[in-house]
Write a structure and sequence with these properties.
about 200 residues; alpha/beta; Helicase, Ruva Protein, domain 3; Dna Topoisomerase Vi A Subunit, Chain: A, domain 2; 2 domains; 6 strands; globular
């Protein structure tokens, strides 16, 4: 007979960032919680795909056809920020410094993994750039090999449309020590310096 705790631990360990020990702790937490909690968790997991969809305009996750950000008329509709994942959009929103609109790619170019330009779902993005009065497209993909490749590809596709393409800055984090910073980050911090 299968061990239900081991089975739940195995399922939880498939989640990103969850190792075997954390998965076991989570499984025991669910087991020790009231049964109503486990039922609510199971209900939430089993209905998530039916309740959540992608926004028709920006491709972020939402429960409506258009997300709250796209529906917000107070946002700056002339600036569009392109991100790789919904989590990146959420991080920018938590920061509170960006009040424009977004587009979520849901992928990054990775030729070694067989992920090419077709995975980026660019036609809706290109249509927005053509049809809306955008002054700037900010490319906010991760500062990784895949993120850089995607940013360069996007800029190549967007420039012929006459829109200004910018890339998020990179460099030292606030409070970071030069002594412990890698060479690439230091080089980018120097390249991106600005006048005080």
């Amino acid at each position: 007979m299968a061990d239900p705790i081991a089975e739940l631990t195995s399922l939880l360990s498939r989640l990103p960032g969850i190792g075997e020990r954390t998965a076991a702790r989570l499984a025991y937490h669910v087991l020790q919680a009231p049964p109503e909690y486990a039922q609510a968790l199971a209900q939430g997991l089993s209905t998530i795909h039916a309740r959540v969809r992608r926004c028709e305009r920006c491709k972020n996750y939402t429960t409506d056809s258009v997300c709250r950000i796209c529906a917000d008329v107070a946002r700056d509709s002339s600036v569009l920020c392109v991100v790789a994942r919904p989590q990146d959009l959420a991080a920018l929103e938590r920061g509170g410094g960006f009040r424009g609109r977004y587009y979520v790619l849901h992928a990054l170019l990775s030729p070694l993994d067989g992920v090419g330009p077709e995975a980026l779902d660019l036609p809706p993005l290109l249509a927005r750039v053509k049809n809306e009065s955008l002054s700037e497209v900010i490319i906010a993909t991760p500062l990784s090999v895949e993120g850089e490749a995607t940013a360069l590809y996007l800029a190549q596709e967007l420039r012929p449309l006459g829109v200004k393409c910018t890339r998020i800055a990179s460099g030292l984090p606030h409070g970071g020590e030069l002594e412990y910073t890698d060479q690439v980050t230091l080089a980018r911090a120097l390249d991106g310096r600005r006048e005080l």
